[in-house]
Specification:
Elements: H1 3-6, E1 9-15, E2 17-18, E3 30-31, H2 38-55, E4 60-68, H3 76-89, E5 91-102, H4 106-109, H5 112-118, E6 122-128, H6 132-137, H7 144-157, E7 160-167, H8 174-188, E8 191-196, H9 204-210, H10 219-235, E9 240-242, E10 245-247, H11 254-260, E11 264-268, E12 273-278, E13 281-287, H12 291-301, E14 305-310, H13 313-324, H14 333-340, H15 346-354, E15 358-360, E16 366-368, H16 376-384
Parallel strand pairs: 1-4, 1-11, 2-3, 4-5, 5-6, 6-7, 7-8
Antiparallel strand pairs: 8-10, 9-10, 12-13, 13-14, 15-16
Helix pairs in contact: 2-3, 3-5, 8-10, 13-14
Length: 385
Amino acid sequence: MTSREQEAFGVYVHWPFCLSKCPYCDFNSHVRHAPVDEERFVRAFTREIETTAARTPGRQVSSIFLGGGTPSLMAPQTVGAVLDAIGKHWRVAPDVEVTLEANPTSVEATRFRGYRTAGVNRVSLGVQALDDDSLKALGRLHSVREALDAVAIARQAFDRYSFDLIYARPDQTPQMWADELKLAISEAAEHLSLYQLTIEEGTPFFGLHAAGKLKTPDEATARALYDVTQEVCAAHGLPAYEISNHARSGAECKHNLVYWRGEEYAGIGPGAHGRLDIDGFRHATATEKRPEAWLMRVEANGHGVVTDDLLNSEERADEFLLMGLRLAEGIDPKRYTALSGRALDPNRIKVLREEGAIAVDADGRLRVTQSGFPVLDAVVADLAA
């Protein structure tokens, strides 16, 4: 086996459509009231996969992630066709992880067995809250009952499943969140993604927040909610392996580890990003965001790439630091030195250690501590300076 085959290589496929746009969401998602021409999209996905694979020969795909938007709006045969195209143009590892993001509505849950047959072996459910009033406020189209029913169906159809929750919601107390989290863990089996609600510019929540009509928890409460998250999850055997992701040992999402460990991944579909190593250079790619414009580009050029930047050594190293320090396992400073051509400043490391924000393990790995994670951006900025 070559070293190229042993390295992780992920393929991200973006399905850009949703039934409705959530008021907190700033992802590349679009609502279409006419039916989506899935056959045309399959042809375009297949073409972009073929073109991208020609740029990255000899890779073995270790993980595939179908994200969105709402990929569970795709027919199972559409998913199957996309996976077939990946298998045709790249080698695929025998233990490949194939994740599909899904909404926990009854309509989509009935498709789970079809996705399993198509080749999906892990599902990630956008539950977001286990409280009906919160779900309504978040613009979700499902109820708590529907969400738990969908989790039960996922449990039957897949060996591996996960779901997302959003916390630090308006009027949420640490005790309310602890109770909700315990219910979630009892349903979650092996993996939970837990995100603090952030107010993103350009979303309806941003306008409501600016007008004082949406009040999120103050800094002290947000910190208490974060601490509760860590304590409850760790006590129930799902410690954080990344700042927002919790898993039982061995159940981490392989695809997300590709991003955080600075490994290679291809971005397929409207608005997808990629990191590809070609001729000794790291390429940062991004495709056209608008679905119909992406289609036309792929049909004309074989791909929808609109940016293809070469990252210099400093940019690569900074990205490695930014992503790697999100992980509980931290980073190997020697890899930072190899990428950037310079070592991290020992004086900055010393000060951050004394402040309790970072730790250096016996093997030299550098990682952010539990007390450092809430100020991660500042820690990264300090080390990268």
